[in-house]
Write a structure and sequence with these properties.
Elements: E1 7-11, H1 18-31, E2 36-41, H2 49-60, H3 75-85, E3 94-99, H4 109-119, E4 125-131, H5 140-144, E5 148-151, H6 153-156, H7 160-170, H8 184-190, H9 195-207, H10 212-224, H11 229-235, H12 242-246, E6 252-254, E7 260-262, H13 264-271, H14 276-289, H15 295-304, H16 308-320, H17 330-336, H18 339-343, H19 345-355, H20 360-363
Parallel strand pairs: 1-4, 1-5, 2-3, 3-4
Antiparallel strand pairs: 6-7
Length: 364
Amino acid sequence: RRWDRQITVIVAGAGFGKSALLAQALDENALSPRGVDCWLGCGSGDDDGRRLAAGLADTLGSDLPQLHQPGELDPTRLGMTLAGDLWRWSPRQVCLVLDDVHWIGRDSEGAAVLASLVDGLPANGHIVLSGRSEPPLPLARLDAQGRVERLGECDMAFGESELTSFAALRGLPRERLADLGGWPALAELRTAGARATIDEFLAEEVMAALTPTERRVVATVAALGGADQTLVDTVLEGRIPVGALMARRPLVSCDDHGWYAIHPVWSEALSRHLDDDERREVQRQAGLALATLDIRQAADLLVAAEAHDDLRAVLRTGCRAHVMSAFSGVHRLYATLPESVRAAPEGQLVAGVAASTTDVDRAI
């Protein structure tokens, strides 16, 4: 539908097949053309407005006299000139396909060129913006006008029938691919049979672009089994916008309350970016912070942190505040307690609360 919309945005993580999809789309259009496709792969230097404009001009077969002049260039003028140059193709439709636009920084000159080009697109002009994160330009107004088509990870991931077909093509049992969240690259790597291969892919393609601080935040969310901005602020020093960071990671979900959760396929690998002491400490702090909000999750974190004294204190406080009596999963909570905590007075108190719903005498 890129010929029916002015803007098409494809956002998905590494290994979701974005470039392969674009190549297939261009090949099919070559067989039965609806217009002219022009492809540009972006790179690390395309923050520079002159370089990006030169690449776009070369892709479109245009000549920008400004590029041959010394001194600073106005990125907005460059973008408008490129947009106006698309009229040269009229009445033919032209689609400019930009792959890997995540290389272009949001506040860079390259982003200004791109924003100006999009803003000035003529009626016969279309643009596809594909990358691992949202394109570095404002699209809300165009979205509201119905001029933007979007594809995300849910569209790009293998569905159930596709996984079944893929498994059959590779001669694998379907069950071996069930835990990968439909991530195409991981499904292909699973055919190699080595867990290390998947971990290497995640490290090289997903985590390498993060700063050490960002990596620690993502690893913390993974180690906690999910978190929101408040919880991350509680366990880590310095406020880092979790939403913007997690939105750029593949297979991350967010509920209506701003709670981010990472798919199990790679949460374990992410959590290993914290050493054992760091992991236990963030789990301990998060468990204490959640004690009055979600006692089951708090207890799970304190068990994982091996913080048995803190766990006993949380159970004691929870029983005193009658939190347990309103908690339907108290039987399951008791079953997950370490043996030493079950045998402690606090563990026996939880057992009594659990029994009170069916056997009052035993509970007493």
